[in-house]
């Protein structure tokens, strides 16, 4: 009988456990180097478990397409060598498409936290040519909205 009560209490406790997950959205742009000056928008969304203080998932979406590209967190590197309080870092995430590594995203914060110091360097696994996307600012940017499937 006691075994059943302990088991029931453990199951109830597990069912009542909840995690607070924070969703953060950031927007980046790149102007193509060709004469047309076409703007490519990159929307980045990450989910953070607030209790664990850990990223639990992330993805990117381009130019309001409906395709969601999953990313896997790879590493965090503090890049402040002289003054660790500046908050500069480099976060690396791996792009997965068709169950294969398709590229790498490096999210970089430089310049002591100034907005102009935030950018993403994307490198395709195919051609290894890096492409830079610059941070646009706050996530209340009206052009920075995820497109969902209908």
Automatic annotation (TrEMBL):
<feature type="signal peptide">
    <location>
        <begin position="1"/>
        <end position="19"/>
    </location>
</feature>
<protein>
    <submittedName>
        <fullName>Uncharacterized protein</fullName>
    </submittedName>
</protein>
<keyword id="KW-0732">Signal</keyword>
